[in-house]
Design a protein that fits this description.
alpha/beta, six-stranded antiparallel beta sheet, 2 domains, Glutathione S-transferase Yfyf (Class Pi), Chain A, domain 2, about 40% helix, 15 strands, Rossmann fold
């Protein structure tokens, strides 16, 4: 996939910006605060329905305005040109359209333009809690398998409903158990499908992670991970066996769940433990090892998408070169040049890329400068 044109109105500090991009590497430079990240965050909105830089839509509205508008013109190798737009107002929320037709559900947007984001916040993947790793995994799988996203949305609704019932103190436990039974069956069924898909994807993903880490690190340590889900499962268990095991666990947990008023087991509490050889990264890894592992995870995601999708993903790299030494910059830029899809790089200046990335009329790469206003200009 590639983004040919992007329009931003009242989006952060972009009052009215329109940019035409190249099909290869798009290098966006400028001083801090000028709007470089905001530009590619607009791309992320039309790919994933949300910002990668902030948690709430209201924080990306330009000061003094009540909403924003984003429109992207895109096309792919197997998909003809189309437009995706996002409009947001504080009163009505977000609305998305494809070729002028409204999307009934946000889930219909995910996967139309597959995207991978590499940013300084990726260190959270290895440093912080399980929620960061589940979010990474869910976003990756949802862009490939629409059924997975459907299962995920259904599963979360069931968990919320169960938690409501578990928190009703005025009802006897036996009555709560009776009302939970149909929800338990649905929870186990949807949860089993999620677990089975996660295990299948991670099995294939491990090869890409190992290749990416070895290439970017240049050292002999072997990256690995352990997917921790509900207890009692075997590697060869299919969805029906997972469902049976999960349902039994739900029933065993009833007394504990009544006490704590929450659903205690399932995909919403899964984790991925990362390793370098036999060392658990989160507990014993150095800052440098965390940084390289997170970088390898995103490069592996890019390789995985490139392998399984018909259209190549869009790759967004936000201010990641400043923390890399010259040897890593060389490796990463070589990987970018070998990637046949479209990439966007934001950086404070062009110096790290001089002599590494070719620009000019003979190449499908383009340079941009973001200045006060903000004004985005293409550099020749």
């Amino acid at each position: 996939m590639r983004i040919n044109k992007l329009k931003l109105k009242h989006f952060r500090n972009h009052t009215d910006t329109e940019v035409e991009f190249s099909s290869g590497i798009n290098l966006i430079t400028g001083k801090n605060g000028m709007g470089k990240t905001n530009l590619i965050d607009g791309i992320h909105y039309v790919c994933m329905s949300r910002s990668f830089a902030t948690a709430s839509d209201m924080y990306v509205v330009e000061q003094g305005n009540s909403g924003f508008f984003i429109e992207a013109s895109a096309e792919g190798s197997i998909r003809s040109a189309f437009t995706v737009s996002c409009s947001y107002s504080r009163g009505d929320g977000k609305k998305f359209e494809v070729n002028g037709s409204p999307l009934d559900r946000l889930t219909d947007l995910i996967g139309r333009i597959p995207v991978v984001v590499l940013s300084p916040d990726d260190k959270k993947l290895t440093n912080e809690g399980p929620a960061e790793r589940r979010s990474f995994l869910d976003a990756m799988i949802s862009q490939v398998y629409k059924s997975y996203l459907t299962d995920l949305v259904e599963y979360r609704k069931i968990v919320r409903q169960r938690n409501k019932l578990l928190s009703v103190r005025s009802m006897r436990p036996d009555m709560i158990r009776m009302q939970l039974e149909p929800w338990d069956a649905q929870l186990a069924r949807a949860g089993a499908r999620i677990i089975e898909r996660r295990r299948s994807v991670l099995s294939k993903f491990s090869t890409f992670l190992e290749e990416s880490y070895q290439r970017i690190s240049g050292i002999g340590l072997k990256p690995g991970f352990e997917y921790k889900t509900i207890s009692g499962l075997n590697d060869e268990d299919d969805a029906s066996k997972i469902e049976e095991t999960y349902l039994n666990l739900i029933r065993e947990n009833f007394e504990k769940e009544i006490e704590r008023q929450i659903t205690l087991a399932g995909p919403h509490r899964d984790d991925i433990v990362f390793y370098l050889d036999d060392m658990e990264l989160r507990k014993f890894g150095s800052q440098g090892q965390h940084r390289l592992f997170a970088l390898a995870l995103k490069l592996a995601e890019l390789a995985y998408f490139s392998d399984v999708l018909d259209d190549l993903p869009v790759f967004l790299l936000d201010d990641v070169f400043g923390d890399l030494d010259p040897s890593k910059i060389l490796v990463l830029t070589e990987m970018l040049k070998s990637h046949k899809g479209q990439s966007f790089i934001t950086a404070a200046n062009q110096a790290p890329f001089e002599g590494l990335i070719p620009f000019g009329d003979a190449y499908s790469n383009k340079k941009f400068t973001v200045t006060e206003g903000p004004v985005v200009t293409a550099d020749t």
